[in-house]
Design brief:
47% of the residues lie in helices and 11% in strands. The protein has helices at 18-24, 26-31, 54-61, 72-75, 78-81, 90-100, 113-123, 135-151, 158-180, 191-217, 224-230, 241-272, 274-288, 302-314, 346-349, 369-372, 393-406, and strands at residues 38-42, 47-51, 68-70, 132-134, 321-325, 329-331, 334-336, 341-344, 411-415, 423-425, 429-431, 435-440. The strands form four sheets. A five-stranded mixed β-sheet has the order 1-2-8-5-3. This is Cytochrome P450. Belongs to the cytochrome P450 family.
């Protein structure tokens, strides 16, 4: 027999949990995590449920979109991002996923370590010892540079690539605000809204122009956009220009934003843990011996892979995701009514002390084989689950490995004294700033 989920603590008269979630966001979700696997959250008239159990998360969020559709969070994104993989549902989502996925297949991706290394070297060419850089912003820019290079490698797209790279930061700030703030905020004549509108216009023009250019040229540039344009669905139909635009924008947003955030956190943790920095450099010395990393080297960089896995656990960008029940349904033993919203925090679950000993401690060695088996394999889902799993996971992991095998060989990073690093949960979970002074290695 299905039971009703208990309410989460912290509810206020009339206002419910709106102040707690709006003001404290991730910390509120973590504070009530122990109260039950499913909790009722009062956020207005729509029934909302916080899912704290990884098995129930997999059940609901791994659904094809027939029982649990995209939730309120994603519905606010559709007017901003279009109907790409990150926002679509049902049969259309499956059609698009089958057409997009081959571009990221590990066996024959539209990129390699040499391409990624070229981008890393170009983005860091101006760095000099003794200067201070904000690693959070620098890694965000690097993440965008990687995905745009993998998307559009043609020389004819250089101008549009630059426009995308120069616009995406203001665009993402606007998207983040619009996903968590009341609708009224986006209509106010605020500087952040004007910057968002201008960035959105530049992105739209750049993406449409590069698609038109590729169609006119008719060449295979051996990049992601060329593969998307060549893809056909089960009925032999290609993507329309609108569908290509939506997928390109979704990939730029998801690929640049999340990969950059995790890399910033990685350098933050490496700088705070001399033992991690030491072991990372021992591995680079033993595997690379001072030369540049190649695709064949990546499987041998086992410690770097553990650092990446631990960053994805401790600093996972997915602090909030939502689904909507399309009918009355039972989730575990809990009754979920039609139209209810489900909310889950991947970040919170990956810090659950019931699963992860000392969850707030950065410890790459928790991913040693003998220790990793202590946690259920299915509890680790940094890139999502099922058909909603991030299509660009392979590119993201490869980018992080190439960056961590390259930049630390040139520089040591020292945090600026007195700066307090804070988590900033907007559309994804980033850092407020990560100012660090560069030292030559």
């Amino acid at each position: 027999m299905a039971v009703h989920a208990p309410p989460a603590s912290g509810k206020l008269p009339l206002l419910g949990h709106i102040p707690a979630l709006a003001l404290h966001r991730l910390s509120f979700i973590e504070s009530v995590r122990h109260e039950g696997p499913v909790l009722r959250i009062h956020l207005g008239r729509t029934p909302t449920y916080l899912v704290n159990d990884y098995a129930l998360y997999r059940e609901a969020f791994g659904d094809l979109g027939t029982v649990y559709a995209r939730g309120r969070f994603f519905r606010k994104l559709v007017p901003l991002l279009g109907n790409g993989l990150g926002t679509s549902d049902g049969p259309f989502h499956m059609r698009q996923r089958r057409m997009v996925q081959p571009a990221f297949h590990p066996a024959k991706p539209a990129y390699d370590a040499a391409l990624l290394l070229e981008v890393v070297n170009r983005q860091t060419a101006s760095w000099r010892p003794g200067t201070t850089v904000d690693l959070a912003r620098e890694m965000d820019r690097l993440g965008v540079a990687v995905i745009t290079k993998a998307l559009f490698s043609a020389g004819s797209a250089v101008g549009e690539v630059r426009a995308v790279q120069e616009s995406i930061a203001d665009f993402m700030v606007g998207v983040g605000i619009r996903t968590v703030a009341p609708d009224l905020v986006e209509r106010l004549p605020l500087p952040v809204n004007r910057r968002f509108d201008a960035a959105s216009d530049r992105l739209e023009r750049a993406i449409r122009t590069v698609i038109a250019t590729y169609r006119e040229e008719g060449d295979d540039h051996h990049d992601i956009l060329s593969m998307l344009m060549a893809a056909r669905d089960a009925e032999g139909r290609p993507m329309s220009d609108r569908e290509l635009r939506d997928e390109v924008l979704s990939l730029v947003v998801a690929g640049g934003d999340t990969t950059g955030h995790v890399l910033g956190w990685a350098f933050h943790e490496i700088a705070r843990h001399p033992d991690v920095e030491r072991e990372l450099h021992d591995e680079l010395r033993d595997v690379l011996s001072g030369r540049a990393v190649t695709t064949d080297d990546l499987p041998k960089l086992t410690y770097i892979q553990r650092v990446i896995k631990e960053c994805l656990r401790l600093r996972n960008p997915g602090w909030i995701m939502m689904r909507r029940a399309t009918k009355d349904v039972r989730l575990g033993r809990y009754a979920i009514p039609e139209g209810a919203e489900l909310m889950v925090s991947g970040t919170s679950m990956l810090r659950d002390p019931a699963l992860w000993p000392e969850p707030d401690r950065f410890d790459p060695d928790r991913w040693l084989p003998e220790r990793a088996k202590e946690v259920p394999r299915e509890a680790y889902m940094p890139f999502g689950v099922g058909t909603r799993q991030c299509a660009g996971e392979h590119l993201s992991r490869m980018t992080m490995a190439v960056v961590l095998a390259t930049i630390p060989a040139r520089f040591r990073f020292r945090p600026v004294p007195g700066h307090r690093v804070k988590e900033v949960p907007l559309g994804t979970m980033s850092a407020n700033a990560l100012p660090m002074t560069l030292e030559a290695r």
